[in-house]
């Protein structure tokens, strides 16, 4: 079992964020007899999944919806599958856009490097003439 501080450090987020996720019913930690939050390895794996969804631009409302569906059990598998498939499609669009943007940037960078090299050669040639 992990404390809120330990979990925050392990997954690289703040305790404030963990409390927010709890408030939003995205994660539901266990509590000890003193009411302190206790997290299991399962909670850690869930948080890592949530953070990956967040990193890939899944809105918090969708993450909350997925978490809600998960807590409702196996009768929500079709809805959870649809939600993840939709998000995967969104990621694929992002990847395509990033790939296209990367190619454009590579072209611009190459053009600028060629311009700099050409200017450098002219500057060297010009200085030799003097």
Topology:
Elements: H1 4-11, H2 15-23, E1 30-31, E2 37-38, H3 41-55, H4 60-71, H5 77-129
Antiparallel strand pairs: 1-2
Helix pairs in contact: 4-5
Q: Top keywords for this entry?
A:
single chain; 130 residues; mainly alpha; Multidrug-efflux Transporter Regulator, Chain: A, Domain 2; 2 domains; 2 strands
Descriptive report:
The protein has 130 residues and is mainly alpha-helical. It has 2 domains: 1-56, Multidrug-efflux Transporter Regulator, Chain: A, Domain 2 (Orthogonal Bundle); 72-130. Helix content is 75%, strand content 3%. The chain contains 5 helices and 2 strands; from the N terminus they run ααββααα. The chain has helices at 4-11, 15-23, 41-55, 60-71, 77-129, and strands at 30-31, 37-38. Strands 1-2 form a two-stranded antiparallel ribbon. The radius of gyration is 25 Å and the shape is elongated. The mean pLDDT is 92.
Report strand order across the widest sheet.
1-2
Order of helices and strands: HHEEHHH
pLDDT averaged over residues: 92
Number of domains: 2
The proportion of strand residues reads under 5%
Query: Helical amount among residues, as a percent range?
Result: over 70%
3D shape: elongated
Which spans have pLDDT < 50 for at least 5 consecutive residues? none
Q: Number of helical runs?
A: 5
Number of strands: 2
Backbone CA Rg: 25 Å
What kind of sheet is the major sheet? 2 strands, antiparallel
> CA-to-CA gap between the ends?
77 Å
Strand-pairing-aware structural class = mainly alpha
